[in-house]
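Deliverable D4.2, example record:
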Amino acid sequence: MKKSMERTRAYGRNKKAKNMRFTPETIRKLIVASQTEGVSQTVYVEKALRNQFQRDDIK
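Output generated by the structure prediction step:
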């Protein structure tokens, strides 16, 4: 595989990760949604938050 190809793929992935960052308001909204909609939703929120904090540590 060409070096340039690898570079572009990584760039796209990083861009996607940045777009997925949550602001405190959205986190609050997600938590409220999770409380109203039950367990399946909370798992999603927890996963999202975990990803968020891991990303911030890397940065």
